[in-house]
Amino acid sequence: MKVIKLRAGKERSLHKRHPWVFEGSIAKGSGDAGETVRIESHEGEFLAWGACSPASQIRVRAWSFEQAERIDAAFFARRIERAIAFRQRLAIDSDAVRLIHGEADGLPGLIVDRYGDTLCAQFLFAGVERWKPVIADALLAASGCVRLYERSDASVRDREGLGAVSGWLRLPAGDGGATAVAIREHGWQLTLDVAEGHKTGYYLDQRENRHLFVQWVRRFGCRRVFNGYSYTGGFTVAALAGGAEQVVSVDSSAPALVRATAHVALNGFDAARHEALDADVNATLRRFTQEGRRFDAIVLDPPKFAPSAAHAERAARAYKDINRLALVLLEPGGLLLTFSCSGGVSAELFHKIVAGAGLDAGADGYLLQRLEAAPDHPTTITFPEGEYLKGLAIVKA
To answer: Residues 59, 61, 63, CA angle at the centre, nearest 5°?
Structure first.
């Protein structure tokens, strides 16, 4: 067993059960990509078992802090079974659920979403890449699914020295391998494509926020709704379900808007109540401001503007601009749901950005609720970096 020995004083984070070991914390030792290593303090104290990633600044990610535990097929089976058992206790109103959420489930770099009878997985770290066949078998055994599609095409794999990989990992004999999948959520019918959609195909982390939006649209009587960065129209369907008379979905992806329009019809809503715009959200907000258009509710769910803290300043300007425009377009008493999925922007900073946008727009608002990812995307108390999605529900004063 290879040993990674830390520099003096660098063991504190592992004592707190934080799973990352950065390159600068290591005094000596290394391992092959994904190889299990023993992590020790400078004095030789056992700290954790981890997997090495020689190409990454996060040089080791911990599997276990228990010295007696062995990292083998049984280990992965236990972790996966525990994660799935936790989701079953959540009683989620959907057949689309995140089953594995990386570090939060003790499986760094592994993301697995279930869409009906199909699993879609991302192997984003050298450790899970090395154990991929074992993990695939354990996922099918624990979930009862027989189809597993891999979407390991995220840019983060570049930092691990891994190339992009997509395709079926497990497919029963005779299965044609169709990648289009139908799911249900809160009584709605939705569709996605595990081979072509963003991430694993759909944004399950917004599930509960979409349900809240239905209630708020109904409660506040929101007739005209703007859904910015709409993707395939989850919040659009929610707005229509809440009684909105007109919803404008704006996204720069024409295929996503085609699916959003299809979702409107699939759920029995009048197509005349929906307008899909293949356009830049910021430019559209500006144009609508000049045209004097107004809305009763606006949703802003942009892509990641700041992947790390180094990008936070530039991202802050982008977040502030779209929120300023949204607050101008909102009618008094209107509802703004605004989000950031940027890990480099904290919840506190995001609140300050939106507050600054309000000042620039000459608008104040009541903070209705702070929003976060659905509970099947958990954050643990020892790994706060896992809290990536933050949002604010604001009623314009």
So the answer is: 150
* Angle subtended at Cα 189 by Cα 184 and Cα 195, rounded to the nearest 5 degrees: 75
Axis-axis angle for helices 207-219, 234-241 (nearest 10): 30
CA angle 319, 58, 5 (to 5 degrees): 150
- Contact between 309 and 269 (Cβ < 8 Å): no
Q: Hey, is 397 helix, strand or coil?
A: coil
pLDDT (tens digit, 9 = 90+) per residue, 33-56?
A: 999 999 999 999 999 999 999 999
- Against a cut of 0.85, is the pTM above it? yes
CA distance to 25, 165, 328, per residue, from 325 (Å): 44, 39, 5
Q: How many residues does the chain have?
A: 397
Whose tokens are 């509970």? That residue is 375
CB 326 within 8 A of CB 338: yes
> d(Cα 50, Cα 21) in Å, to the nearest integer?
9
Cα–Cα distance measured from residue 354 to residue 210, given in angstroms and rounded to the nearest whole number = 21
- 298-357: pLDDT as tens digits: 999 998 876 666 667 778 889 999 999 999 999 999 999 999 998 888 999 999 999 999
- Residues whose CB falls within 8 Å of the CB of residue 312, separated by 6 or more in sequence, listed in order: 306, 342, 344, 345, 349
78-103 as b/e: b if 16+ CB within 10 A: ebbeebbebbeeeebebebbbbbbbb
Q: What are the tokens at 181?
A: 């999948």
The SS3 of residue 385 is helix
Q: How far apart are CA 137 and CA 72, in angstroms?
A: 13
Q: Is 341 known to be catalytic?
A: yes
**Residue 295, strand partner residues:** 330
Catalytic residue among 52, 120, 222, 341: 341
- The rounded distance, in Å, linking the Cα atoms of 74 and 236 is 43
Beta bridge partners of 17: none
